[in-house]
């Protein structure tokens, strides 16, 4: 059962990446591009309708809203375009992930956050 869930999650991630690519493809109709872009942006965005830190409710938008939206967006994109972008997304998934690159990005964000806190921290009254 866990294997099926993992396979489904990988396919969903691949399809969201393929929708992102299809949204930028000129062969995709404008309405499909707009919807695919909105679905991919929502799926990849850290901002949710219901924040994930809320127990149980936090993941409801991903479980209830996202799968039908992904399926509808896939149906709006022409099949040959979707097949091409699915292959590209699958190839991208097969590439190794750079943990050092991820650590560098996190370090940059932490440094920027620390600089902003330092910059805007109120001065003590004398």
Index terms:
126 residues, elongated, transmembrane helix, YkvA family protein, 73% helix, mainly alpha
Describe this structure in words.
The protein is mainly α. The protein has one domain. The protein is built from five helices and no strands. The protein has helices at residues 2-23, 30-44, 60-76, 79-94, 99-120. α2 (30-44) runs antiparallel to α3. The longest helix has 22 residues, at 2-23. The mean pLDDT is 87.
The biggest beta sheet reads: none
Low-confidence stretches: none
Q: Please, what is the average pLDDT?
A: 87
Instruction: Give the strand tally.
Output: 0
Q: What percent of the residues sit in helical stretches (DSSP H or I)?
A: over 70%
Shape summary: elongated
Count of helical stretches: 5
Q: In angstroms, what is the radius of gyration?
A: 19 Å
Structural class: mainly alpha
- In whole angstroms, the N-to-C terminal distance is 65 Å
Helix-strand pattern, N to C?
HHHHH
Beta-strand percentage range:
under 5%
Overall number of domains: 1
Summarize the structure.
With 126 residues, this protein is mainly α.
Give the SSE map.
Layout: H1 2-23, H2 30-44, H3 60-76, H4 79-94, H5 99-120
Helix pairs in contact: 1-2, 1-3, 1-4, 2-3
């Amino acid at each position: 059962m866990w294997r099926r869930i993992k396979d489904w999650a990988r396919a969903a991630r691949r399809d969201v990446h393929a929708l992102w690519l299809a949204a930028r493809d000129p062969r995709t109709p404008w309405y499909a591009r707009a919807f695919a872009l909105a679905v991919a942006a929502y799926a990849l965005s850290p901002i949710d309708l219901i924040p994930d830190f809320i127990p149980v409710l936090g993941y409801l938008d991903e479980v209830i809203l996202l799968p039908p939206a992904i399926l509808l967006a896939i149906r709006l994109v022409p099949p040959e375009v979707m097949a091409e972008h699915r292959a590209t997304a699958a190839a991208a998934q097969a590439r190794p992930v750079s943990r050092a690159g991820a650590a560098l990005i996190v370090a940059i964000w932490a440094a920027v956050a620390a600089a902003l806190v330092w910059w805007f921290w109120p001065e003590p009254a004398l």
